[in-house]
Write a structure and sequence with these properties.
Structural class: alpha/beta
CATH class of the largest domain: Alpha Beta
Helix content: 25-40%
Radius of gyration: 22 Å
Shape: globular
Order of helices and strands: EEHEHHEHHEHEEEEHHEHEEHEHEEEHHE
Length: 371
């Protein structure tokens, strides 16, 4: 039995996770055998005006060729292998593109600390605006076991939420999700769509799929659940199947589509509307009209006052006088907003000594409330 071709969900921005088994040989050497087709999908997507961020495994596996097996044991050995292999991994991805590839290494702390989370978010947005292709991996060189994110499937789901992706693509060495492990159960049936990941799905999933990887189908289902909570659909497909990968570029999936209960925008708007606000920013009529009527970001020039003691990353209300008409995530703390209020964006760094960008609230982090 085979997966039935189906349309991909509509998307503009995606995260593509590529596992170690697709990038390395059995001996750990990097290979472009499967990466070439995945890169062609990224190029086709970018040519269509879409944005793709790659989450790529393979650094530790690629580094094994530089060290004797006995030197690769333990945490410090794996950290050294990651450092040795990461440059080769980025070099492989850069070889497929004329546009610049940007290496981004993230840690547990980067995604748990609110300030660093927002800094990572801002950096990735700027890289996309510059036309670069971010290639993300966990920073295994400095990560310790108790603070590791664990696997790049879950990292990819976190990144998808971080950048407000519309869909998470997970390229694997298996066609998609089955009712049981197809490698051991001949009665296993392919599942084209999954509305909700259930405990039964998790129970039927195994552990790590290959010696090179750290995750199996279970981690992919865990990642899909995280993405779904943010309103992001997940697509599982066989990255070794060149025909399957080519069809992705044509908008057709032969694999498993794991749906989200609501759209990304709906999930984010719901959260922004209902999260307790930490303060309020009062704006003038011009800024109110731009935000409310034109979907613009809130710039410092339109800010009249900041009320409360909110921090960067807090949810705040936006008011025109006494009337609250929007909510959003503050890019600057209240004390900083007061210092840059009514100033031009070019004066932010001079006023503060640093800059987190030109927006007090970015339009992607903002929701206009019903009249």
């Amino acid at each position: 039995m085979h997966f039935t071709p189906q349309p991909l969900p509509d998307w503009h921005r995606a995260v593509l996770k590529v596992g170690s088994s697709l990038l390395t040989t059995a001996t750990g050497a990097l290979t472009d055998e499967h990466a070439d087709g995945l890169a062609a999908f990224v190029r086709a997507s970018r040519s269509a005006g879409r944005e793709v961020i790659i989450v790529s495994s393979g650094a530790v596996a690629a580094g094994r060729g530089f060290a004797a097996p006995e030197r690769a044991a333990g945490l410090t050995g794996r950290q050294a292998l990651a450092a040795l292999g990461q440059t080769r991994l980025i070099g492989l991805w850069q070889s497929f593109f004329d546009s610049p590839v940007a290496q981004v290494l993230l840690t547990h702390d980067d995604l748990r600390n609110r300030r660093r989370y927002l800094n990572a978010r801002s950096t990735l947005r700027e890289l996309l605006a510059l036309g670069a292709i971010p290639v993300i991996n966990e920073n295994d060189t400095v990560a310790v076991d108790e603070l590791k994110l664990g696997d790049n499937d879950n990292l990819a789901a976190i990144v998808a939420a971080l950048v407000d992706a519309d869909v998470l693509f997970i390229a694997s060495d298996i066609g998609g999700l089955y009712t049981a492990n197809p490698r051991t159960d001949p009665q296993a049936r392919p599942l084209d769509t999954v509305d909700v990941v259930t405990p039964e799905h998790l129970a039927s999933a195994g552990g790590a799929g290959t010696a090179a990887g750290t995750g199996g189908m279970r981690t992919k289902l865990e990642a899909a659940s995280k993405a779904a909570a943010a309103g992001i659909e997940t697509v599982l497909f066989d990255g070794r199947d060149s025909a399957c990968v080519a069809r992705l570029g044509e908008g057709s999936l032969t694999g498993t589509r794991l749906k989200a209960p609501s759209t990304r925008l709906a999930a984010r708007k719901y959260w922004l509307r209902h999260a307790p606000p930490a303060g309020r920013i009062v704006v003038d009529d011009g800024a109110a009209n731009a935000v409310r009527g034109k979907g613009a970001s809130l710039l410092p020039g339109g800010v009249s006052a900041a009320e409360g003691d909110f921090a960067r990353g807090d949810v705040i209300e936006i008011a025109d006088g006494d009337a609250v008409f929007a909510r959003g995530i503050a890019q600057y703390a209240a004390v900083d907003v007061r210092r840059i209020a009514r100033r031009h964006t070019r004066d932010i760094e001079a006023a503060l000594g640093y800059s987190y960008g030109e927006n007090v609230v970015h339009r992607d982090d903002l929701v206009v409330l019903p009249e």
